[in-house]
Give the backbone structure.
Amino acid sequence: MKVRKFLFVGALIAASLFSVNSVMAQATDNVVVNLKFQPIQSIVVTSGAEGVNLVYANKTDYSNGKSETVSDHLEIFSTGGFVVTVKAETDFTSTSTGAVAIPASHVKVTAANGTGNTKEYGAGLPEVTLSSTEAQNFIASETGGTGLKFDVSYNNVGGANNAYIDKYIHPNVTETVYAATVTYTIATN
């Protein structure tokens, strides 16, 4: 009888150990880990301390107009597709007495891939005529990127054919300057 009790107690202890182990082995829980990507975009314009200068200094300049290309002028970071617009805040004006504004539409801007930018844009890099009334689509991409650099050309086609022959106003100054602030804006595409 003692052997039976001993075996029964042993079996009871073994059964309880197995049931404790099986309960412990099944004690699990789950958590969902989410990777959340929010849109981040930035655009940086590099133009130097003086901005972009289209200098009319000789007869050819007045006859043909001027253009200037600024290397790596824009740098873009975007977590997804994007569109960059361009707008002149005003027409080109001068502080010189008697100066008449030059329409923003006299200048066209064009972007091209800059240093290290090998992305293909297809029709996403059109030549754009500046406007002082509405932003124009300038650079567009269906995908994002980081460190996307663009060369930008400013072409003053409106200044050809001696259109600005009378824009130098005062003979006692070195030059008459007409200026407009050009704004680039990036948004999701």
Notes: The longest strand covers residues 66-78. The chain is about 15% helix and 30% strand. The two ends are 86 Å apart (CA to CA). Residues 79 and 156 are 34 Å apart (CA to CA).
